[in-house]
Amino acid sequence: AQKITQTQPGMFVQEKEAVTLDCTYDTSDPSYGLFWYKQPSSGEMIFLIYQGSYDQQNATEGRYSLNFQKARKSANLVISASQLGDSAMYFCAMRDNQGGSEKLVFGKGTKLTVNP
Amino acid sequence: EAGVTQFPSHSVIEKGQTVTLRCDPISGHDNLYWYRRVMGKEIKFLLHFVKESKQDESGMPNNRFLAERTGGTYSTLKVQPAELEDSGVYFCASSRLTSGRGIGDGEQFFGPGTRLTVL
Fold first, then answer.
1. Which of A4, A103, B49, B60 counts the highest number of beta carbons within 10 A?
2. Nearest CB neighbour to A101, from listed B9, B48, B103
3. Inter-chain residue contact A103 with B48, CB threshold 8 Å
4. Three-state SS for A86?
């Protein structure tokens, strides 16, 4: 079964600094997709970035980048130049294709607090 | 383009009562998913519709949960009778059918969730 592990329940970072949120995964599928979502206090889940298992380069989206290390089965999210609005829960997820549903399997999340 | 909407945003009911949650996906999205997050735990998959058909309901916890998607548009999730352990946030997500061609295909767009509290 696929599994996502986020070992950091909470992280703190100073405004304008970079922060790395850890994510490791476990799967036997050779083809998979990894996602990061942000959940601010308002509750909605916001898609941030996607990495496919066969992508040659690490994904980047603005201030977000994904440090994808396939051999280590890790997909850490790097946020550069943190802003106060980045304070939120962050979830790492993997697409699970079993049953033909492409459902997402999530980690427990990391609560990021950006300090002024 | 309107996003995924969910109603109600909050619901507080007593054990044994019935509650119905509603999800309106993004127009044109054939895939509709229900997920649940119990306090302090992972967000867990409940079930997946493709149009009006249930593609995968392996995550439904028991037969007290009934999901429908009549006409392949909005979906409802009914809990009857509700138990204390059903408390949590219920998310709905929708996506286009995957074409398998590019990044973002099949990306799931989430609604704001319904916070259910069973007393």
1. A103
2. B48
3. yes
4. helix
Is the model's pLDDT at B100 over the cut of 60?
A: no
* Structure token pair of residue B38: 């119990």
A89 touches chain B (CB under 8 A): no
pLDDT score, position A31: 84
Contacts of A47 (CB under 8 A, 6+ apart): A35, A36, A37, B107, B108, B109, B110
* Residue A10 bridge partners (DSSP): A111
Q: Which of B103, B108, B113 sits opposite A43 (nearest CB)?
A: B113
Burial of B71 (0-12, 13-18, 19+ CB in 10 A): exposed
What are φ and ψ of residue A85, in 5° steps? -70, -5
Note the pLDDT of residue A14. Answer: 97
- Say how many CA atoms lie within 13 Å of B117 toward its Cβ: 5
